[in-house]
């Protein structure tokens, strides 16, 4: 197969649907995990001194970050994922935890659609853009 024939996507929607369907809820990221603790320490230093109100996560399927930032900072959270399973899990997770939130958008970040012009104070990604 020629290099130019290879799909340029690093993963597929069906891959993430399969990965995410086994996620256990409710889920909130904890500093007990070394990787989460390091991320929290870094992000918390930047956010603690700001008066932000809204938070948007790119790639939020089954995320424990949405509840973390909602609980820690009182942010109104929302997110985007291109896996329908991931969107359902993110919504259900927030509901199980009693966290009010804006809609979870089921879209491909790399194929933007028109939006209502909503802006967010904090936009976060943990593994999509990186």
How would you characterize the overall build of this protein?
The chain is of the alpha/beta class and 130 residues long. It has helices at residues 13-20, 34-47, 65-73, 84-96; strands at 54-58, 76-81, 101-106, 122-125. Strands 3-2-1-4 form a 4-stranded parallel beta sheet, covered by helices on one side. Helix 4 links the parallel strand 2 (76-81) and strand 3 (101-106). The model is unreliable at 1-6 (pLDDT under 50).
The proportion of residues in beta strands is 15-25%
| Biggest sheet strand line-up | 3-2-1-4
State the separation between the terminal residues, measured CA to CA: 28 Å
Structural class given helices, strands, pairing? alpha/beta
In short:
The chain is an alpha/beta fold and 130 residues long.
Properties at a glance:
single chain; about 130 residues; alpha/beta; four-stranded parallel beta sheet; about 15% strand; disordered N terminus
List the helices and strands and how they pair.
Blueprint lengths: L12 H8 L13 H14 L6 E5 L6 H9 L2 E6 L2 H13 L4 E6 L15 E4 L5
Helix pairs in contact: 1-4
């Amino acid at each position: 197969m020629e290099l130019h024939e290879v799909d340029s996507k690093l993963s597929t929607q069906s891959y993430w649907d399969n990965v995410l369907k086994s996620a256990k809820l409710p889920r909130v990221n904890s500093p007990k995990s070394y990787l989460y603790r390091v991320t929290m320490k870094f992000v918390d230093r930047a956010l603690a001194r700001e008066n932000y109100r809204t938070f948007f996560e790119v790639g939020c399927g089954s995320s424990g970050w949405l509840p973390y930032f909602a609980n820690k900072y009182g942010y109104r959270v929302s997110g985007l994922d291109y896996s329908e399973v991931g969107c359902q899990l993110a919504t259900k997770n927030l509901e199980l935890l009693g966290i009010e939130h804006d809609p979870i958008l089921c879209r491909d970040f790399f194929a933007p659609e028109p939006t209502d012009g909503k802006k967010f104070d904090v936009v976060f990604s943990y593994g999509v853009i990186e």
